[in-house]
Design brief:
about 325 residues, mainly alpha, MetI-like fold
Length: about 325
């Protein structure tokens, strides 16, 4: 067990190192990319460019620049923005993390519960009107872009219907800290939660339904029927548990990506200053330290989510435990 944990940690460190090198080389070593020119602005004189390179350490060899940046990012944590002079990158990312976590965790609860309900109900009524209706609604949910759903929700809750009893409780766009204003936190995020979860409810429901239908044809299900167990118990206890491998895999990948900034469109539409919005703003100005930090942050959560999914396989499906 200890060896397996150390092995995973080693792979995590290796992957993070590789990603950091690739991102650094893309922005600092690609032909035609000159960070000093972007910092100094257009029509900067050679003297100004030389001063900027010296000030930011861009006149050093690339390995030295990389080592200095990694040290300032992970050790001293005093890496500063190239655009907003004096703004430290690590505190800015740490400040944005609770916003993204709040958004993604709430949406994840909704889409996991919704996906389970839709998938199980559709599989239980396979071929019936309930199945067809749920699959049609799921297809609609998957087809609607998140930014469009968010804009429609804003139009209804912030403008057209804001003064009605349906949305009079909705606060202005933005984020309220959980610890200082729990009620405001919930009110500010409930609509973004629904907006982000709609896509995944439809997607996860369709995947679970397909896996459940296939699982219910397995030999162990026929054995359970031969024992006289109720169909509902067979479906919920045996079918669902054995069909969750794809569900859990998708959840791990999606959750890790969203925590790492994949909820960018939702954050932008609802004015949430999360990691995705921070990355978006940095890309607009090519603020390289911020981009590098957020990319490493995102890759950490994606790799960690994959490792967690591997560990959950044995819990979800007993067949994996026996195979191990």
């Amino acid at each position: 067990m200890l060896f397996a944990i150390l092995s995973r940690l080693g792979r995590l460190v290796f992957v993070m190192f590789g990603i950091s090198v690739v991102v650094f080389l893309i922005f600092f070593a690609t032909p035609g990319s000159d960070p000093a020119a972007r910092i100094a602005g257009r029509n900067a004189s050679p003297e100004t460019l030389a001063q900027v390179r010296q000030s930011f350490g861009l006149d050093q060899p690339l390995p030295v620049q990389y080592a200095v940046m990694m040290k300032r990012l992970f050790v001293t944590q005093d890496l500063t923005s190239f655009v907003n002079r004096g703004q430290k990158v690590v505190p800015a990312v740490i400040k944005a993390i609770p916003v993204t976590l709040s958004l993604v965790l709430g949406a994840a609860v909704l889409w996991v519960i919704g996906g389970l309900i839709v998938g199980v109900a559709a599989a239980a009524t396979r071929g019936g009107w309930t199945d067809r209706s749920l699959m049609a609604l799921s297809l609609v949910g998957v087809s609607m872009p998140v930014f469009w759903v968010g804009e429609v929700m804003n139009l209804l809750s912030q403008s057209r219907l804001h003064h009605t009893f349906l949305f009079s409780w909705v606060p202005p766009l933005g984020y309220k800290p959980l610890l200082t204003d729990p009620a405001g936190w919930f009110k500010a995020l409930v609509i973004p939660w629904v907006t982000l979860a709609i896509l995944y409810i439809g997607l996860y429901g369709r995947i679970l339904r397909a896996d459940l239908i296939e699982t219910m044809q397995e030999d162990f299900v026929r054995t359970a029927r031969a024992k006289g167990l109720p169909e509902s118990r067979i479906l919920l206890r045996h079918g669902v548990r054995s069909s969750l491998i794809a569900f859990v895999t998708m959840f791990g990948l999606d959750f890790g990506a969203l925590i790492g900034g994949g909820a960018l469109l939702t954050e932008v539409v609802f004015g949430l200053r999360g990691v995705g919005k921070l990355t978006y703003d940095a890309l607009q100005t090519l603020d390289l330290p911020v981009i590098l930090t957020t990319v490493l942050y995102a890759s950490f959560f994606v790799v960690a989510a994959n490792a967690l999914v591997d560990a959950l396989y044995a819990v979800v499906d007993p067949r994996v435990r026996r195979a191990g």
